[in-house]
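ok trying again, last paste got cut off:
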Amino acid sequence: MLKNKNVLVAAIICLCLSNGNTAFSKDVGVVLSKIPGSNRAALPGNKNAVANFEEGSNLYKQGDFKGAEVAFRKAIELEPNFVQAYIALANTLDDQGKPQEAIAHYKKAISLDPHDSGAYFNLGLTLARLNQLEPAIAQYKKALSLEPNYADAHYNLGNALYTQGKLTEAVTEYTAAIRLKPSYAPTYTRLGNALYDRGELAEAVTQYKKSISFDPKYADAHYYLGNALYAQGKSAEAIAEYTAAIRLSPKNPAGYNALGNTLYAQGKLEEAIAQYKQALNLEPNYADAHYNLASAFYAQGKLTEAITDYTEAIRIDPKHAQAYTGLANAMDDQGKPQEAIAHYKKAISLVPNDAFTYYNLGITLGREQQLEEAIVNLKKAKELFQAEDNKEMVEQVDQLIQKINIRTN
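nice, full thing came through this time. structure:
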């Protein structure tokens, strides 16, 4: 019986095409104006402090963060209780890669005005970038308790909840953000991602298309729409969306990798290989692209090339279980069963519930006359296939176990 084919890795949700819309961005407006209904502090009466503050705001908008920092510090020196200046200074420090200093100044602003929703929001953004999700969520929720119609806070709270895998809660927050800011395209894409992860493909497609209707040049929406269409088996439509994503974001490897997978699924291996190579030209350390390229080589019978790229995927990502399985398949086909067995076992140690890896390991062990161990692994494969309701593979495993039992009797 044949080993299973290698499963391509699309990195469907975890690899976004761009980083520009992962958040609405810092609430820069907090330093100059109020969100309707908020309780943010008014500017102080010290005209020199306000002048330095406004100078810093202009420099910040121009991207001169160091100059802005100097101006904001001067404003605080002249007016030590200048809440907006502390927030603005924190924004500037965060943008200069000084998150801990930024956090201290956000907290100072909060201590001076506990009702400033923007301070909590910006503090949440900084904490989220440090992957401190629970503290970030607490700050977003505090901002929303003060300003329930704060669209940016709903959106970023949705992002943090999504990252934690709390999809239902994320959907709630994205929906609230859309109600408050209905023309912001990335929110529909994020909502689509959450729906996709819940297996609601048709609904996800609807959201991605809404995102594109508001911003036809939003590459991420085209990319994720391509993923959803691909998952629905609509290869031609998926290719059109991936092509659009590549046109709009030609230096991002994710689109090429995904397009390669769709071409692979159509049996167009040479075209798929060209796309994987383009992804790797842009990002040589793209582990999934190396894995997918190796799988395409494997499908062509080019074992040496396949082994090279499986090995490279593992070097980049030592926990890439699929790459170990692919490498094991190629090693076995090269007549190196003991090396294959070691790689299958490594894959199982990383992902203990992959039925096909146990199945492949059982086949190789059986061929090597390690029959008792072969049966143990095949029974484990059967158990997992049964849990997946994969009746065809359950039948194949039963047949294989029966043949081994005949050989041992």
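cool. The two ends are 21 Å apart (CA to CA). The first helix runs from residue 47 to 61.
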